[in-house]
Amino acid sequence: MTSDQDVPSPIDFHDPSQARQWVETAIARRPARPAFFAAFVAALQAGLPAAAAVLELGSGAGLLAAPLLAQVPAIARYDLLDFAAPMHALARERLAVFGARTCHLVRDFKRSDWTEGLGGYHAVLTMQAVHEVRHKGHVAALYAQVLPLLEPGGVFLVCDHYAGGPVRDMHPELFFTRDEQPLALRAAGFTRVEPLLERDEMSLYRAATPV
Ligand SMILES: C[S@@+](CC[C@H](N)C(=O)[O-])C[C@H]1O[C@@H](n2cnc3c(N)ncnc32)[C@H](O)[C@@H]1O
Question: What is the whole-number distance in angstroms between the Cα of residue 74 and the centre of ligand 1?
Answer without folding.
Answer: 25
